[in-house]
Every structure is written in C-alpha cells, then in structure tokens.
Amino acid sequence: xxxxxxxxxxxxxxxxxxxxxxxxxxxxxxxxxxxxxxxxxxxxxxxxxxxxxxxxxxxxxxxxxxxxxxxxxxxxxxxxxxxxxxxxxxxxxxxxxxxxxxxxxxxxxxxxxxxxxxxxxxxxxxxxxxxxxxxxxxxxxxxxxxxxxxxxxxxxxxxxxxxxxxxxxxxxxxxxxxxxxxxxxxxxxxxxxxxxxxxxxxxxxxxxxxxxxxxxxxxxxxxxxxxxxxxxxxxxxxxxxxxxxxxxxxxxxxxxxxxxxxxxxxxxxxxxxxxxxxxxxxxxxxxxxxxxxxxxxxxxxxxxxxxxxxxxxxxxxxxxxxxxxxxxxxxxxxxx
Length: 336
Hints:
Blueprint: E1 11-18, H1 22-33, E2 40-44, H2 49-55, H3 61-68, E3 72-77, H4 82-92, E4 97-103, E5 116-122, E6 133-135, E7 140-142, H5 148-164, E8 169-174, H6 182-194, E9 201-206, H7 207-216, E10 223-226, H8 228-241, E11 249-253, E12 258-262, H9 279-291, H10 295-311, H11 325-335
Parallel strand pairs: 1-2, 1-3, 3-12, 5-10, 8-9, 8-10
Antiparallel strand pairs: 4-5, 4-11, 6-7, 11-12
Helix pairs in contact: 1-9, 1-11, 5-6, 7-8, 9-10, 10-11
C-alpha cells in the first residue's frame, strides 16, 4: 500500500491545483507540508475547466505523465470537467480503489461523536464506464460490468486494509436480491475472499438498508466495501453524517500510483474570496503521508488538525467561525 522514496531520498509529488478553490486549499496544504521535516519535490500540472479553455484539453498528456512519474499526486478540485479529469486519471493510472474515510471531529455538525469508518469503493467498472453507455431508439442504455478479477481485488484490499489498521469488521454492500447475477457474484466473492481473513468479522447488507443504517447506527461500521455507483452515493451520505464535504478527504490507490483529493469540488461561489476550508485537502495530505509510510508526520499533521477543531478558535465559516484560509493555515503551522 506504500511506495518507496526516490534515490535522492526525496519524494516527487505531482500537484494539480485545478479549478476554483482548488488552488487556494492546495497552496494552504503545501505551506503546511513544508513545515514538516520531509523533503518534497513538487511538480505542478494543469487540469480542469481553466486548462480546457486554455489548451483545449481538460487533462493534457503532459499532466498524465507528471502523475505517472510521481511518488504520489495531490489534486485540488475540478469544475464541470471533473469526470474528464478524475475518471480519466483513475483509468490511466489503474487506480482501482477509492478510499473515503468518514470520521466525526469535535465542534462539527456530526450526527454522532463516535463515527469512524472508511468506504472502500471499486473504481474501474460498474456503471461508470462511458463506452458502455449509449443512446437507443427508445432512450438510452447503460451497461453495468462486474468482473471477478476487479471485485476480488477490491474486496481483498478492504480486508487487508482492515487487518493493517486494526479494524475488526468488514461490511459488503450490494443489491443481490434484485441484481442476482452481478451483485450475486459480488456477494459470493466477498465471502470467498473473507475466508482468508478468519479473525475479521464479515457481514453484508443491501445498499438501501445500508443507507438507513448509516443514519440509525453509523458507529457500528468500520470498513465498508462496495461497487462503484453504490460507493459513490454512500460516500456522500457519509459526508453528511459528519458535517459535510468540507472535512472529507479521499484517496485513489493503484499498484503503480496514488492520488489524494478533497471531495468538496471547486466551489466557484466562494473561489477567490480567501475563505475556503482547507482541512479536507490537509486530511487528504495526511492520507498521502501514510501511503508514503511517513506515519509519524501524518499523525503529527492529523493531531494538529484535531487540536484546531477541538479548540474551535480558528475556524472557517462553514464550521461556524469567521477565519480565512490563511488564518487556518497559520494556526495549523503553530499547532505543528
């Protein structure tokens, strides 16, 4: 799950600020990372709406190569071209696992105080494959693809994640009562793979029931593994449980690369005002640090963020404060 340093004992980090508040939260996060005792070499790439207008491409080949040659990638946000950027990067880099931690923090609008689970979402198939969707004489048709190879890979990743992070339970989410073949296969594979992990509890729920349980008993989940569309929907529900998208990081992991991004989007309504909340981007950087096996630095940054939220003295407007992005950045640096 980790990568190695380059020969110069330095990490090459691809940086794609993107659109809207992406550049603001990225600048904030880079400033904080530069206050850790680590050696980063940042290589900047362009992508997103502004890049499309400037170059004619939402995701230029040069940017893909930057990501391909980096130890990890930090991504800010994309606007209307998000699908053309993020989905293509996932496909190009074969980033098969999307990780969305859902954790309640102090002084946020969380539904409960003890929420702490992660959604492991399959990233390469399902309904989100453009060439499997087409118009017909009657309307349109989308083909849902579920393969044994991809589902075994993501389910095994989820169980291994649970083992590596001292989690005791993995929940498989599907709709096998209706999608008897495709989700029936997913359910079968879930228990087949689970046999390799006898010390981890296994359970499975229908996706609609899971959506309800996330509201009524979110504290009972630890690791959720599911297919692409279901994971996308449940991830945003998870964000709602813990105060909104401003606190949710994410990771896209493959065998040959990883990309880390907040899930809040480009927020054009507040872009350029200096009031964007950088915490989701910083928490994405925490995930990157742990991916790079820089666990001590990752915990140090995460603890600084936790202290900032606990003290609740320097918070942006979405968290009930009136601090600017720069003020939050400076406070995090002090707390480091």
